[in-house]
Batch of 2 targets.
Target 1
Amino acid sequence: MAFKLIDLPYEDTALEPAVSAETLSFHHGKHHKTYIDKTNAAIAGTELDGKPLEDVIKAARGSNQGLFNNAAQSWNHGFYWHSLAGAETSPSEELSAMIADAFGSTDELKKQLQERGAGHFASGWVWLAEKGGKLSIEETHDGDTLADQGFNPLLTIDVWEHAYYLDHRNARPKYLEAVTKDKLNWSFASENLARGTAWVYPG
Ligand SMILES: [Fe+2]
């Protein structure tokens, strides 16, 4: 069974002005779709056909870079759409306590996400993740993912240029500031934390 391009969980104008409908139309409708299509084409008729996306990522890591890139990017983008929200959300009590413990405050966490995202060289992803009961900010390069690395990813922000160039040109810090200001989906992060295992790409 082929993987599907999941629908955006909000209207395409919901993230404005941080992320415009035009950006979403390309980022979701073209970039994410291409990663899905290429993953499906690469696994068609192989033993990975019909396996969950997480299994495809694990199987391809270190052995098939082309498939890995497309499968991991398919997962990362699905996770990213849910990491953002058009409506105001807030962290659960459990997540709030862990944020206070690890970063001091949500504002400080946002500041550190902005700094890590802005400082990340070239394309990649910045993550809020949990491992062993502790929160941390992680970075992955290019199409790499935290999906299969023993973390429970809570949120991610895409720092590839295609995520922000139409709206903010080369000003990645402006995109990060706008996204972290009021577009992070703390409800999604709280659900991921409460579940205790990594999110699974809907199939
Ligand atoms: Fe992207």
Note: The mean pLDDT is 97.
Target 2
Amino acid sequence: MRSLREAFGQFATGVAVITTVTPEGTRAGVTVNSFTSVSLDPPLVLWCLSERAPSAPSFLRAGQFAINVLAAGQEHLSRRFATGAADKFAGVELLGTPLPLLAGTLAHFVCRTVRVHDGGDHHIFVGEVERYQRAEGDPLVFHAGRYRECMPELAIGRAS
Ligand SMILES: Cc1cc2nc3c(=O)[nH]c(=O)nc-3n(C[C@H](O)[C@H](O)[C@H](O)COP(=O)(O)O)c2cc1C
């Protein structure tokens, strides 16, 4: 299992925090690197959540979620939402309510859950993008269990 996890980890990804709020007003947020864009028309995305994650019932009930794509320098948010902290949102700057949107991200996508597939020990959430926003900046990158920085563009070999 560990060896397979390490082999999967060779695929470098960005990092996103998926947030939601239930009809009763309970907020949840989890760090993921399983976010993938699926389709442009209709605009669909997916991400995977462990069936054992304490926040899974909230995401299943909520029927909506927001994908917050983390920027370089937002490692602290990645760490915060990857723990079982009592109130992960304490002190975190938010742009929207009741669905929490994290400030300073590279993009966010507000989605309606259109399907939840069985994915082995994970739920696969498929969402339709209802609105989105993007900003300029470098991404937070995750590879082999560590946070990385993007390499600056190489000038060598480029025609001016
Ligand atoms: C970079 C990174 C990527 C992660 N990706 C996922 C993922 O795609 N799916 C998942 O279920 N957990 C993923 N996790 C672990 C969850 O963030 C972690 O289990 C979290 O505690 C779940 O939130 P909860 O305890 O409130 O349910 C990832 C953690 C890190 C640090």
Note: The first helix runs from residue 2 to 8.
